[in-house]
Automatic annotation (TrEMBL):
The lineage of its organism: Bacteria, Bacillati, Actinomycetota, Actinomycetes, Micrococcales. It comes from the Bacteria. It catalyses: (S)-malate + a quinone = a quinol + oxaloacetate. Its EC number is 1.1.5.4. Its cofactor is FAD. GO terms for biological process: tricarboxylic acid cycle. This is Probable malate:quinone oxidoreductase. Belongs to the MQO family. InterPro entries: FAD/NAD-bd_sf, MQO. Keywords: FAD, Flavoprotein, Oxidoreductase, Tricarboxylic acid cycle. Pathway: Carbohydrate metabolism; tricarboxylic acid cycle; oxaloacetate from (S)-malate (quinone route): step 1/1.
Amino acid sequence: MKKTVDVALIGGGIMSATLGTLLKQLQPDWEIQIFERLGDLAQESSNPWNNAGTGHSALCELNYTPQKSDGSIEISSAVKVNEQFQVSRQFWSYLVDEGALPEPRSFINPTPHMSFVWGETNVEYLRKRFDALKDHPLFAGMQYSEDPAVIHGWAPLMMPGRLKSEPVAATHIPSGTDVDFGALSNYLIDNLVESGSELSTGIVVKNLKRQRDGSWDLKLRHDIGGTPVDTINARFVFVGAGGYALNLLQKSGIKEIRGFGGFPVSGEFLRTDNPEIVAAHSAKVYGKAAVGSPPMSVPHLDLRVVDGTGSLMFGPYAGFSPKFLKTGSVLDLFASIRWHNLLPMVAAGISNLSLVKYLVSQLMASPETKFEELKQFVPNAKPEDWYRITAGQRVQVMKKDPKKIGVLQFGTEVVSSADGTIAGLLGASPGASTAVPIMLGLVEKCFPERMNDWRPKIEKMVPSFGQQLSDSPELAQATLERTAKTLHINP
């Protein structure tokens, strides 16, 4: 007889870990089983070396605050992303208080966030951005300077060797963070296992088939050797398999996945572990993307703290691979093409020729040219101190649009069946940092009949649930202070 579970989570990264933890808190008697294709958890996009790990809160990411045609700055996207990150912080704080997460510094560390630009036009833009954000309750404490001496105090590594005649500007906010989502994923899933959930690693979900009662049969195989594993039946399935989510949702046959395609983009960073260099830079610094470049190209110099040790990463440098995962197949892109998504994919490609041009230029760029980009941030950087690492694969969403045949989307999107028995996550940034609000939205969408019973517990885990912190400066300040204290991230 097939084993039946209440919830099957496909993928052992931050999304599955977050949803599993939420559901276990809300319905402790549910049986949850997690399937991870690789031998270890969080080895793809949740791995700390495969993502920027900024704790995306739009404190420094300039692509969230575009300049409008009238010269003003649009801050709505920045506010939305910051709101979402505060939801994640509240949930993590609750789990720390409950003992479900260990010492916070093992996965989150206080790290100032900075924006840095040069050139008169960019300086004027950053000044306007600061003016638009400085009085917002979620951006309290942001500072602005065009004084090289002040900026040197914030980021000593970035100013020596720079032309004194060059206009520069920076914002600095000490309440930023660095998050190791690999460690966090492992802690969350470890706690799930301790609470009775079952974890199966090295197991591939090859197919999903809906049963007459609305449940799903999962056809399983060992990743190594491909030998079959007993089929599992699940009343609810979440596909959090990163780039492979598209393929599995297509195999499920749900009509809601029709028209969706994926465009894979790989990335590279330059990294240094030199203690002297790392000691001279204790911030995450985002610059401004070149005119015409896609949002994914925003250059940044990040402090990363992994296992208590700091390193610096600079990038990203875009690349291309047809794989949907770093450990995927070169046939992934071609295997994802269906009759219903071919036209939207072609249309999205044609309307994003600037992205194609950008990718080609990145692929053709020499190592020397790429290093010169680092020197725009660190003028005195030496090649012998830095080495190249390959980041995680990102699969951008391509889909139908009411106004266009096909569009390329740079965010994330939850796709779920009409009956709410299966759901999956497509897309990339800001991803991990907004895992909690994304999964809360999924819970509302897939389990509407349980929300009245679950709401009190959700509000205990996330006190601002259903509210906007930006609407109440007092609530925003109290929430920021409380979570900073619990997570030990007071600057």
